[in-house]
Amino acid sequence: MTRHPGTPPSPRRPRALPRLGALALLLALAACDSAEKTAPSAGRPVQVVQVQASKLAAGVELSGEIQAEKTVSLAFRIAGRMAERPVNVGDRVAPGQIVAKLDRTIETNAVAAARAALEAARGEVVTARSTFERQERLMDQGFTTRPRFDAAQKAQETAQAALENAEAQLEQAQDRLGFTDLRADVAGIVTVRSAEPGEVVQPGQAILQIAREDGRDAVFAVPARLLESKTGDPLVSVVLAEAPGISAVGRIREIAPQADPVTRTFQVRVGLQDPPEAMRLGSTVVGSVETTSSVIMSIPAKALTRSGASPAVWIVDPKTSTVSLRPVDILRFDPDHVVVSQGLVPGEMIVAAGVQALHPGQRVAPLPPARSAATAAARAPG
What we know:
The chain has 382 residues and is an alpha+beta fold. It folds into four domains: 43-56 and 295-378, conserved putative lor/sdh protein from methanococcus maripaludis s2 fold (Beta Barrel), CATH 2.40.420; 61-70 and 215-292, Beta Barrel (Elongation Factor Tu (Ef-tu), domain 3); 84-102 and 180-214, CATH 2.40.50.100; 104-178, Helix Hairpins, CATH 1.10.287. Helix content is 27%, strand content 35%. It has five helices and 24 strands. It has helices at 16-38, 105-141, 146-178, 224-228, 373-378; strands at 44-50, 53-54, 57-68, 71-75, 80-84, 92-93, 98-102, 181-183, 188-193, 200-201, 206-212, 216-222, 235-240, 247-255, 266-273, 284-292, 296-300, 305-307, 310-316, 323-327, 329-333, 337-342, 349-353, 364-367. The strands form five sheets. Strands 1, 18, 19, 20, 23 and 24 form a six-stranded mixed beta sheet that branches. A six-stranded antiparallel β-barrel has the order 3-12-15-14-13-16. A four-stranded antiparallel beta sheet has the order 2-17-22-21. A hairpin with a 6-residue loop joins strand 13 (235-240) and strand 14. Helix 2 (105-141) runs antiparallel to helix 3 (146-178). The longest helix is centred in the first third of the chain and has 37 residues, at 105-141.
């Protein structure tokens, strides 16, 4: 079309502007769609921690008393009426010291009778020996018979046997006389008396009990649950209840195989190493020992979620950066962390924050951990 001079411009040319705007809008939408498609590939940012194993340590304190490591019960070997007991409870005794005596009348008479029998047996031996020697000379000269010679020889042997028996009877009577004195065979302290002067006692009946001075134990009544958690050979610290500054250490020496029928506790004896003199027998003491639990994992409380009705955590796969839900067993709940007994393996990575918006198989982008599970475990109270 020919435009004449003075004719105004054609109005169709400005229509190209809306087409350019539409094209820009389409490009912007494509860019947004591309951004939405590439954003998930980066993963959802989450905070993670590494699971580390630890053990819970707790202190246990129990009251007990000081007892002798070994006690000795003293008793007479023969029966009789106890005449005296020169020692009492609390007295120190030395080896060989007389601690009790029996009436010696019967044993003294028995010794006298045994001595008389011995003298008579010696006389019989002398007579029988003289008779045999005479018969032996007559036999050599042919002035006696064989039966008389044999009878004299037999009488000599019988008299000799009677002499030996009399000697043994005298020795036995003298031993019984010595048994009327009860002597201590160890050094120690008298802790119990079981008979008084004037009583008739029997052989083997305990008269006194002596605590030996060569060792002391701290004895405690321990509940069964504490014995179940006992591991190894822990060192026990023992202090006097009335003077905590006086202390000693020891190790468990003996555990009773059967519980007390009333308290249902087990008696535990702790052998003390060089106890101070102030820890006397019967003193009240307090024993403490550190107990350690089995291996546990402590994780932040924010990492805990649920899988059905069971507690669970999100496990991060380090190869694919994806998460999976795993049930765990909780040993204890604390304000800022939980103690897991089963379900986790040391070294695994778990999601510590942002667990509510995750789903299985989702890709995540782990952030630098602000605090590890080991730190949480360290903060766990004893």
